[in-house]
Amino acid sequence: MLATLGTLGAAGVLALAVPCSAFAANGFLVIDGVRHDSPKGCFEIPHLSVVFNVSDVPALVHNVPGCAGGFVQIIPPGLAAQVPGTHSVFLG
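Request: output the structure for the sequence above.
Response:
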């Protein structure tokens, strides 16, 4: 229970801090083999995709297009994850 609360607390802090960033992330984001240098903003995921976060900030996965609403997953720097279609990924 405490671990869950800690995770939710950390996620809440990221939700408030990351979207307000004015600068692009250092590094790149790879979505299905397509590299996006100095990623910033919202990236649509139209179909099941592998997202590899090679930046210096967490990637926030939203379960709706347009990075609307809350996020459902965090892809930390240096890690990859499978993201379902009709989702979106935000890097700030």
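The first helix runs from residue 2 to 17.
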